[in-house]
Structure formats: structure tokens, C-alpha cells
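REQUEST ID: PR-0412
SUBMITTED BY: lab tech R.K.
PRIORITY: routine
TASK: structure prediction, single protein chain
INPUT:
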Amino acid sequence: MIKRNCNLDCIRGLAVLWVVIHHISMNYGVIKFGQCSEGMNVFTFLSFYMVPFYIISGYFFNVKKTFTTFLLNKTKKLLIPYMTFTFFGLLIFEVFSLVDKGGIDLPSIRSFIPTAALPSNTPCWFFISLFCVNMAYYFISKRNSWQRHLIIIICFLFAFLTNGKTQIFGYGNILLGLVYFHIGTLFKEYEPYIRRKGVIFVAACLYVLISIFDPQRLSFVLNLQVCGLYALNLLFSVAAMIVCWNIASLWKYEGFVGRNICFIGQNSLVLFASHRPILSYIIQPALNHFIPNLGYPVFLILAFISILAFYFVLNLAGKKFFPFLLGA
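STATUS: complete
OUTPUT:
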């Protein structure tokens, strides 16, 4: 487990669990996609939850591989799971349509174009985004240091220009993903510095002050700045990651909770890619049918526990019988 770096598995595990909570809350109607909540609340306070996936991926980036080896590895790790869970979401959606409407309901291709994800399983956008980020950064990494920094600055500026505008296959989140991926490589290069007490203190102050005085919320899926300022969101997210990076290093991961969060972090792909169709087309319809008029706290707890139960079964069965389809 030490070799896996439990610190980063913890961050990734908590991030994917928050993704699940965020989507449960959206399905219930507590928050709405693309709409800003008033003032500082838990959803704006933790709105950097997609950033860890890009930064941690950048942290583990290996430039020494040949491009063919790199391409095959990322195809296995990202593109195959993308196709697997796109089909998985579509299958569950069509079964739900047969039961609920008595016939199949083909998803609109128009909704596929902005993010490269079908509406039956919207989180699949992330796999295409991260795959493109990896491919682009492989070639960026061949440039010298100042050229890499310049290219990333240009990517950030173009990401800013596409903020809130119509995109094709999520090129806005790819551009912004490149920025955070690059920051992940810097975390690896300068990790001793981000563990200094002074840096942690400044990062914590920035994170808290920005959260209080200018709450941030970026919808990464469409690179849409819902609340706050675009440049300030970058500072907010990096400061949050520095704090998380150091807090995670203090946890021993020895208890039931710690071990299971590490397990989820190590196997975050399945939970990330499967939870939305399970929530929308199995759990929520069942709860609405058998226990109508549930309050938000009870709905959240029941849906969360149910998703985790589905996840553990799906992950174990997939790893045993179909590991290739999960990118293993």
C-alpha cells in the first residue's frame, strides 16, 4: 500500500466520493447544473473536486516512455473504460426506458457533441478529456522548461476565452486540464517546497479567504465559471490542493475508514464511471417508487450507501471476470 502512495489515493478517494455526493444532490434538486448557489456553502467550498484527478495524473506522468507505449497504456487505461462505461450507461438507460416507457429511447447526439459523453452516462466526458490531456502533454513535455510554461500559459488563456462558450468534445476542459496536469508535474518536481509550513499556511489562508469573500464554482465538464473569477479559481484550486496534499500525508490509513478510502482511491475509475446511471436509472426511481417524499438528508444517505454497494460488487466482479474492460 505504501508503494501506491496512500496520500494521493486518499485525495482521489475523497474527491470521487464528493463527485457522487454532488450528483446525488443535483438529482434531488438541492443544486442545479450551471447555477450558482448563494454565498459560501459546502458546494462552493469544495468546488475544486475535479482538479485532483488532473494534478495527480500529472504527478505520475512518465516522459521516459516511447510514444507508442504511452499511447497503448492510455488507450488501455482511459479509452477502453470510456467505451465500456458508455455502453454500460446506455444499457441501463434503455432497460429503464423499457420499464418506464415501454420502449427504447435513443439519446440525442446533440448532447454528445459538447463533451463527447452520452446523456445516459455524462461523467464519461472525463476519460476523453484526460486522454487528450495526456496525449498533448506528451509532446509538450519534449520542449524545454520555459517553452512548456509558455505553452501552458497559452492553454490557460485559450481556456479562458472558451469559458461559457459552446464547445466540441470538451476542448475547453482539455485546455484547462492541461494547466492542472502541468501543475501536477510541478508538484512532483517541487514537492519538498509545498510541504513547507510557510507555504501551507499561505495556501490555507488563500483558500479560506477566497471561499469567504468570492466563493468559486467551476463546472469543469463544460469549462463554465458559474461563480467567482476564472483566474481566481485557479489560485483557489491550487491552494486547496496544497492543503489537501499536506493533510493527506498526516493520515495513517490504518482504520476501517482510512483503508476503504484508500481502496476507493485505488479503484476510483469504476465508481466515477458507473455511479451516475446507477443513481439516475436504478436507485432514484426505486426510492421515489417505494419511499416517496423523502427529505434530502435521508435521500442522500440511502442513495450514497446504495451506490457504494453497487460499486463494490461491480468493481470486484469486473476485476475478476472483465479486467480488460476496466483498463486493468
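NOTES: The CA atoms of residues 34 and 226 lie 6 Å apart.
REVIEWED BY: pending
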